[in-house]
Amino acid sequence: MSEAANPDVSVLSLEPVRARKPDWLRVRAPTSVGFAETRALMRRLKLNTVCEEAACPNIGECWSQKHATVMILGETCTRACAFCNVKTGMPGPVDLLEPMHVAEAAGALGLEHIVITSVDRDDLPDGGAGQFVKVINELRKHAPNTTIEILTPDFRNKAKRAVEMIVDAGPDVYNHNLETVPRLYPTIRPGARYYHSLRLLDQVKALSSQVFTKSGLMVGLGETPLELHQVFDDMRSAGVDFLTCGQYLQPTPRHAKVIEFVPPATFAAYAAVARSKGFLQVAASPLTRSSYHAGKDFAEMKAKRVAALG
């Protein structure tokens, strides 16, 4: 059996990791006043968060600082990805008050930057794109100084207009995660298609060169360094500005196994390779997630673009 804490474990190993998490992946249980206040606000406004639904390890840190990633369109997903802790099933009706509640939450939390994501809604004609537009419009009206980052599903089998209408609404950052390397899609992300997701990112940049594009990857699922480097190249070919890369953690025994706990030094190496390929911003560490430190990273990325333009 592989030793999880051993940084020399081969990325090619097919033996699932069953040892305890290494020290670099351990976080404190959330106990702060800020955490309790953020949770109370989400409950009052009947808002879901990916922080809770996806069992994010950073929830204690982020919520204590009153940073939360809102998950719109309900808490039930129509997909069943092998890595995701969000429940699968037939979702309920779209909440018509949700856009106003998101804007109210942004104001109550005093957010300079907000991240909005959603479950997959294959049951809706537009995949839920219209709800993203309504949320963006409400935020622009009631929280005009808050920058907006959206993390959308792939809108697979939906009209091209789904992506166009969101870009037209003018988010500051459009994020769509590739999640893993193409070889692992059939087992890790069976309802999605790698090249469809890549084309979505390319489409966003083609529609608006001003919108920053972002995508994320999980490691520790059995991918190889060369496969990751190829994905970096694919992202850059699609014009992606910002790469996030973090350790996959198995939410429950029924989810995909962790093949390797990737040590921090390897993340640093991946970040160096990614920066050499031209990303404006790279966040790579064991605890990195799509929306982790998103506001700070957005400000840095924006400054880099301004500097690059002279």
TrEMBL record:
One GO-annotated biological process of the protein: protein lipoylation
Enzyme class: transferase
Keywords: 4Fe-4S, Cytoplasm, Iron, Iron-sulfur, Metal-binding, S-adenosyl-L-methionine, Transferase
SUPFAM superfamilies xref list: Radical SAM enzymes (SSF102114)
Necessary cofactors: [4Fe-4S] cluster
GO molecular function, one term: lipoate synthase activity
InterPro entries, alphabetized: Aldolase_TIM, Elp3/MiaA/NifB-like_rSAM, LIAS_N, Lipoyl_synth, rSAM, rSAM_sf
Subcellular location: Cytoplasm
Positions that bind [4Fe-4S] cluster 2: 77, 81, 84
Protein's UniProt name: Lipoyl synthase
Record gene name: lipA
